[in-house]
Amino acid sequence: MLFEATNHPVSDIALMSDGDIAAEKQLKVNDNVPYINETLTVKPDILIIKTSEVANSFDNSMVIDSGIDNVALDNAVTDVLSGEIA
Hints:
The protein is an alpha/beta fold.
């Protein structure tokens, strides 16, 4: 489930099971290490899903690799914003 508000407290998405929230995740699309570390401190029980390059630079099991690299993400966003992908 995606939250309607882009600044939803605690998490960015929720994984649902039988209509209940089973897990919450944070999606971070930046390479701001201090910001990520602050998030880990404030919300230590919420997984943070990062682009491959950034996730691989962390030695913390709460930061996981999305399987998407920065170039692929940039290309996908560009395609959507340009109208190439609806």
